[in-house]
Amino acid sequence: MSATQERAARFAGSGAALTNMAVFLGVVALIVFYLSPLSPAPNDLLVTAFMANPALNGLILVVLVLGVVYNLRQAMMVGPAVRWVAAFRASVDPSRSALPKPPPLIGAMSRMLLDADERGGRLSQASTRAILDSIGVRIDEGREFGRYAANLLVFLGLLGTFWGLLQTVNAVAEVIGSLSSQSGTGTDAVSQLIANLNAPLSGMGTAFSSSLFGLGGSLVVGFLDIQAGRAQNRFYSDLEDWLSGITDVTTATAARSGPRYAGDTADRLEAALAKLEASQDRGAAAVRQEIRQLGVLLTREPRS
Question: Rounded to 10 degrees, what is the CA torsion of 129, 135, 140, 142?
Fold first, then answer.
């Protein structure tokens, strides 16, 4: 592409993705605040659910916080990369000494661009492909933990569900077993039954609270992972458009369009025609020889 097309490339950055993340986290924070004792209409739902199994629910919240922070970091990694590319494009210093330190996402690309800058500022097709492959691999590797965090939250929620159901089943079995051994009036039996039902209900609380925190956390981390992926994929697309403008697509064909290549082609064609003519002459001579031998045999056969 021409220099005009190279300058036309624009990098969007990660501003839109970070805005979407901030709005989404704000909505989630408002919901949590509304369901907490600190809201204008105090509500103990989340606190009660958390206290049903503080250890497992606390682990779920820790994974949730790590997933949120990691996805925000992944989205913010695009900004330094965009600024470095903008500084590289705006730099007029041949030595590029004023450029900032390249971020890890484009570390390999920065070295290849600086090397190409010393050779005229054009990249070969192989170099462009290597740059895009390197950045694509780093983006995919960077998103692995975000996806793992979302899946881990679902797993912890299901783990708490089955854990609570197991506690419920065991407690119900104990309640049923205690009914046959109870003695006394009907009122005492009912009171004892109600007291024994606390354990099964506690197990159900563990099951549902873990599912609530696990699936809710997975929803939050999954949305943030999508936004971070969109920001990185947009940067990859913009980078691909820009690199296509500074890639030398004529390198592979320039050597084939000169007079030397035309002369070589003519010589090769002439040599091929000469070989074909020689092979035809040898074939014709062989056919004539076979005809002569056949004629000799035919003339000798009547005499015998």
Answer: 170
Are 200 and 280 members of one domain?
no
Backbone φ and ψ of 247, nearest 5°: -95, 130
CA distances from 139 to 114, 129, 135, 159 (A): 22, 15, 6, 31
Overall domain count for the chain? 2
- Please check whether residues 219 and 197 belong to one and the same domain: yes
**Residue 187 to residue 126: CA distance in whole angstroms:** 86
Q: Do 44 and 193 share a domain, yes or no?
A: yes
CA distance 264 to 269: 9
Residue with tokens 């390249």: 102
Residue 302's domain spans which residues?
A: 268-304
For residue 303, give the H/E element and its range.
none
Do 61 and 206 sit in the same domain of this protein?
yes
Q: The tokens of 137 are what?
A: 């691999």
- Please give the model's pTM, rounded to 2 decimal places: 0.71
> How far apart, in whole angstroms, are the C-alpha atoms of residue 231 and residue 241?
16
Residues 199-222: tens digit of each pLDDT:
666 667 777 888 889 999 999 999
List all residues 6 or more positions away from 249 whose beta carbon is below 8 Å from its beta carbon.
Answer: 125
Q: Are residues 179 and 148 in the same domain?
A: yes
E strand residue ranges, 182-248: none
* Residue 263 lies inside a defined structural domain of this protein: no
